[in-house]
Amino acid sequence: MSNDAMSGSEREDAAPAPGTVRWAPRKARPGKISQAGSDLGRSIVAGLIAGCLVIMLTASHAALIFSPQQPELFAIGFQMALTSSILLNIFYAVFSSLRGSIALSQDVTSVSISVLLASIIAILPPGLADTARLSTLLAAVMIATFATGLFFFIMGKMKLGRLIRFTPIPVIGGFLAATGWLLLRAGFGLALPDLSLNSLPSVLTDTTGLLKLAAALAVAAAVIFAIWRSANVLAVPLVALAAMVIFSAVCWIIGVPYDALVDAGWVVRMNEAQSLLPAVTKIDPAGIQWWFVMQQSPLIFAVLTVGTIALLMNASALELSLECDVDLDRELTAAGAGNIFAGMIGGIPGYIGFSPTVLNHRLGGNSRICGLVVALLAASVLVYGSSVLQFIPLPVLGGLLMWLGV
């Protein structure tokens, strides 16, 4: 058909040949602009909601590593978990094979790190200065994070991600069972720090202790029940948020002052001037006890080994849940780069998260922008970290750990 035979509308839609006077990139239609704006808004909202779940989970991971009964250490742990989550989400937003993937510090590696630090604390000299003790512990965490990232990166570049397909199921089952038990025990320990077989009789007669334990169990049970009865991906963040609101409302109604809650161990008082600068700035190189760190090389190797298995398991589970293909080697590379940088400035090992990623996708956040939104939210919390932590009841964190363990 000649140009003369074209209708008026066809003439308007036809693009002139390049080089002619009328040639120019075709303008976006109003409908496409509206659709792009809708997708962007949905991605931002989904990222913000998934980011709230990330913040709560990172706080629980910090509690796994550093006890909330030591506010200064707890703040450092929270800062390290946030630092890792920020860097990981930036790298995943750029390099992940799965659009809308959300990464964060992880419970599995946090448990391994807590075992590593407990082993170092057990062999450090009793008279060691506090600065040297803290420097040694932070150096061990940073080395473990850097080594984990390097191991991830090398495995990804060598195309070894498919090895998870050949891992025996009993090995994976035993790994998950052991991790679940450690998380469950940590959840009980967060609700009742002094809980043990020897202290059980006194705990059963302590009204405050029983109330904290009951609150943590209630949060865990509510999350489990919500997931069981509803397929809504907002179940976990909504239950955690509702628990915090109910706790605050009850305390306000009965007139319990904040200082009393701190003294009773319900919340953690954070120093308003608490610095949340990178953990590397809190290290005194001259005080690091390198010999005691190097003695834990087998445990550092265990951190990167279990981290690799857990990362590949999460990626494989996302393939089934989201019915998509995930390039395991690209996931290893993205996590490796993020952990390498986190290890340099002070972070804990992390990788793609199953629950936040599924939540993000169910909310329509299948864009790479979502990871950047989560990183921005985590960065804002990092700036105001002290004020955020002091409003999170410890039984809520304990209940989340119990749920993860179960």
Overview of the structural elements:
It is built from 17 helices and two strands. The chain has helices at residues 8-13, 30-65, 71-95, 107-123, 130-157, 169-191, 200-204, 207-229, 235-254, 258-264, 290-294, 297-322, 328-345, 354-362, 369-383, 385-389, 394-405, and strands at 103-105, 350-352. Strands 1-2 form a two-stranded antiparallel ribbon. Mean pLDDT is 82; it is low at 1-13 and 18-28.
Count of DSSP E strands? Answer: 2
Q: Give the overall silhouette.
A: globular
User: Can you give the helix content as a percent range?
Assistant: 55-70%
Strand order in space, largest sheet: 1-2
Low-confidence stretches: 1-13, 18-28
Radius of gyration: 24 Å
Number of helices: 17
The averaged pLDDT comes out at 82
**Main pleated sheet:** 2 strands, antiparallel
**CA-to-CA gap between the ends?**
70 Å
Amount of beta strand: under 5%
Q: Structural class of the helices, strands and pairings?
A: mainly alpha
One letter per element, helices H and strands E, the order comes to HHHEHHHHHHHHHHEHHHH
Briefly characterize the structure.
With 406 residues, the chain is mostly helical.
What would the keywords be for this entry?
17 helices, 406 residues, mainly alpha, 69% helix, single chain, 2 strands
